């Protein structure tokens, strides 16, 4: 049918092989910041705090549904935003980290059945960034996190993660494709 893809040209007046509206299962553009300390990465659990909507685009229901598992510091992209600015915002606004050199992005995509629109495929584009902190560095837990801690992602079972972040971690740990910037 005209206007139902497959090309991600999303516009009411786009070409016949583009989409006239978002794909039925939705799509997200997200920035993830892997804060590294040796082999460990910084992971958090969402607190019951309405500031998550402004920080990451998470509404109360979505945040509550995923509050029990570990997540990578991440957020949805804002309209017109450069992914590098989103990564910097994660560092300074979400984690309250002072100046750190941020590397990336490495771009990954995923397609899976939507949790909000069963039977439809959801498309994700992930911008993966990294920064390092020295061994022994203290990162204080901001009040919107219920927990924030250092973990070896290879030692955590997939069930310990929320929001499908185990898939993002697995992709980050995998060797990059030829020509892609290395992360993980």
Describe it.
Helices cover 18% and strands 28% of the residues. Strands 1, 2, 3, 4, 5 and 6 form a 6-stranded mixed sheet that branches. A hairpin with a 7-residue loop joins strand 4 and strand 5. The longest helix is centred in the middle third of the chain and has 12 residues. The chain is an alpha+beta fold. The chain has one domain: Nucleoside Triphosphate Pyrophosphohydrolase (Alpha-Beta Complex), CATH 3.90.79.10. It contains 4 helices and 6 strands, in the order E-E-H-H-E-H-E-E-E-H. The protein is globular, with a radius of gyration of 17 Å.
Give the secondary structure arrangement, pairings included.
Elements: E1 27-37, E2 40-46, H1 51-56, H2 60-65, E3 74-76, H3 83-94, E4 103-113, E5 121-132, E6 145-151, H4 165-173
Parallel strand pairs: 1-5
Antiparallel strand pairs: 1-2, 1-3, 2-6, 4-5
């Amino acid at each position: 049918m005209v206007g139902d893809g497959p090309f991600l040209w999303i516009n009411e007046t786009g070409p016949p092989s583009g989409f006239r509206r978002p794909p039925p299962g939705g799509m997200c553009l997200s920035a993830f910041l892997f804060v590294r300390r040796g082999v460990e990465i910084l992971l958090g659990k969402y607190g019951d705090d309405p500031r998550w909507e402004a920080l990451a685009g998470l509404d109360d229901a979505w945040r509550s549904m995923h509050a029990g598992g570990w997540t990578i510091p991440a957020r949805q992209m804002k309209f017109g935003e450069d992914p590098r600015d989103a990564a910097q915002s994660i560092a300074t606004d979400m984690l309250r980290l002072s100046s750190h050199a941020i590397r990336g992005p490495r771009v990954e995509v995923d397609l899976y059945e939507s949790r909000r629109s069963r039977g439809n495929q959801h498309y994700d584009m992930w911008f993966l960034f990294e920064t390092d902190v020295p061994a022994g560095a203290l990162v204080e837990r901001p009040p919107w996190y219920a927990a924030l801690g250092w973990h070896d992602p290879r030692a955590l079972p997939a069930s310990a993660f929320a929001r499908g972040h185990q898939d993002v971690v697995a992709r980050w740990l995998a060797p990059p494709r030829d020509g892609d910037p290395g992360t993980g």
